[in-house]
Amino acid sequence: MIAQRQVAAKSNETPAFAPLLDRIDLRGVVVTADAMHTQRAHAEHVIAASGHYLLVVKGNQKKLRKQLRRLPWRQIPLQARTTGSRHGRREVRRMKVCTVRPGLFFPHAVQVMEIKRRRAHRKTGRVETKSVYAITSLPPEQAGAAQLAELVQNHWSVEALHHVRDVTFGEDAPAPHPAPWPPCATSPSDSCAKQAGPTSLPQPITIGHALITLPPCSDSQPENASPLH
Question: I need a surface site. Which of 96, 125, 196, 217 has the fewest CB within 10 A?
Answer without folding.
Answer: 125
